[in-house]
Amino acid sequence: MNGTVSKTVYPLRGTGVRIPPSPPLPQAVALSLSKGNLIFTQKTKMNNVTQLWSVYILQCNDGSYYVGITTDIDDRLREHNAGQGSEFTKKRRPVYLVYTETHESYASARKREAQLKGWRRKKKEWLIRGFPSTRPKDSLKA
User: Fold this and answer.
1) Taking residues 124-139, what's their average pLDDT?
2) Cys-Cys crosslink for 123: which of 55, 113, 119, 127, Cβ 3.0 to 4.6 Å?
3) Is residue 80 within 8 Å of 95, Cβ to Cβ?
4) β-bridge pairing 65-70 and 29-34
């Protein structure tokens, strides 16, 4: 998780307190009223902590490839091999990790995963062998 969320509840019943409209608050702060209580919610960022996402390619026992994303490669590989991963890999165990790359955000990893899933087998094998993904377009034909 990239931070913490803290909630403080202030009881308002019987205090005669009226809540005037509040000015806009920073995105990390929210005020709400629920069942006679004022609820102050604040999200705080943890300093120098970034959750990295990994895009990975597994080679299945039948030679097919599976592309996915995770925050913990080792744990995810264990899940796939225990039959707790996807239905695709469950039927093709054991699976072997053949490629991985790191992304700083979920969105970036998801976008790359979608890109790799759209590639044909030959192009995935080209990437797995260690060729950069920035080759001229003529060498990337799917």
Assistant:
1) 69
2) 119
3) yes
4) unpaired
pTM of the model: 0.60
Per residue in 57-73, pLDDT (tens digit) is 999 999 999 999 999 99
Residues in the chain: 142
Q: Which amino acid is at 111?
A: K
- The region, left, alpha or beta by phi > 0 then psi within -120 to 50, assigned to residue 130 is left
Share of the chain above pLDDT 90, in %: 52
Q: What are the tokens at 8?
A: 């403080």
Write down all domains in the chain, each with its CATH number in brackets.
Answer: 3-45 (no CATH), 53-132 (3.40.1440.10)
- Confirm if 12 and 38 have CB atoms less than 8 A apart: yes
- Asked if 41 and 112 touch (Cβ cutoff 8 Å), the reply is no
Q: What is the mean pLDDT of the chain?
A: 77
Contact 36, 46 (CB under 8 A): no
Residues contacting 127, CB < 8 A, separation 6+ = 57, 99, 116, 119, 133
